[in-house]
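Quick one, probably user error.
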C-alpha cells in the first residue's frame, strides 16, 4: 500500500487506500456501511468485505500505474488521486467514475491539498510537484488549473500558503528548500538543512 487518506472531518467513518495494485479502494470503518455520518459518502450495496471491513473499488482498471497519493476534497464525494502514469484524477465516489483527469509532464513527486486551518471551510489549493513543474489546482472545481510554474530542476515536493502568498519547493537532488512569491514567481530565499542546523539565504 502506497497511499492512505481520511476525509477532512473530526470523526471520519471511511478510509481511502491505493498502491502498486493500481486500485483505489474505500473502506467503511464502521463495518456496516449504514451507520456512516451524513457528510461521509455511504458504501453501496455492492460493497465487499475484507477482514470484516466493508469496502468497494473506485474506477476499476483506470489507473495505469501505482497510486502515489490520495486527497479527499471538501466535498466528501470527491477524491483526487495521483499515479505513476502521470495522471491526476478527480473521482465521483457515487458513480465510481473520474470527473476529469489531467496529464502532467513528468514523474509525480507529491500531491497535497494545502488549506488554512485559520479559514473555516477553506477549500485550499491542490499542489502537485511533477518533473520540473509545479501545478496549482482549484480546491473546489475539479481539474481547474490555476497556475503552472516551470523550474530548471526536478521538483520532488511543493506546498503553498495562500495567505502569505508563498510557494515552497524541494528537490530530490539537493538539500535546499526554495521559497517563491506565489504571485510573481520571484525566488525569495533558500533554506538548507545540514545535519541538525538550518541555514537561510534570502535575496534583497
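Nope, works fine. Designed sequence:
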Amino acid at each position: 500500500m502506497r497511499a492512505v487518506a481520511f476525509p477532512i472531518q473530526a470523526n471520519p467513518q471511511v478510509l481511502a487506500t491505493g498502491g502498486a495494485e493500481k486500485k483505489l479502494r474505500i473502506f467503511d470503518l464502521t463495518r456496516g456501511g449504514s451507520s456512516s455520518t451524513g457528510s461521509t459518502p455511504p458504501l453501496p450495496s455492492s460493497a465487499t468485505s475484507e477482514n470484516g471491513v466493508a469496502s468497494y473499488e473506485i474506477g476499476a482498471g483506470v489507473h495505469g500505474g501505482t497510486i502515489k497519493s490520495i486527497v479527499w476534497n471538501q466535498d466528501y464525494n470527491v477524491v483526487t488521486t495521483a499515479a505513476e502514469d502521470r495522471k491526476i484524477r478527480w473521482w465521483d465516489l457515487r458513480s465510481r467514475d473520474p470527473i476529469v483527469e489531467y496529464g502532467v509532464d513528468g514523474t509525480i513527486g507529491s500531491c497535497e491539498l494545502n488549506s488554512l486551518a485559520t479559514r473555516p471551510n477553506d477549500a485550499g489549493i491542490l499542489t502537485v510537484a511533477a518533473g520540473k513543474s509545479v501545478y496549482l489546482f482549484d480546491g473546489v472545481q475539479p481539474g481547474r488549473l490555476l497556475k503552472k510554474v516551470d523550474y530548471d530542476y526536478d521538483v520532488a515536493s511543493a506546498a503553498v500558503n495562500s495567505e502569505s502568498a508563498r510557494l515552497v519547493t524541494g528537490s530530490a537532488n539537493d538539500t535546499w528548500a526554495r521559497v517563491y512569491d506565489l504571485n510573481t514567481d520571484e525566488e525569495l530565499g533558500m533554506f538548507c538543512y545540514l545535519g541538525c542546523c538550518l541555514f537561510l539565504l534570502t535575496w534583497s
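The chain has a mean pLDDT of 86.
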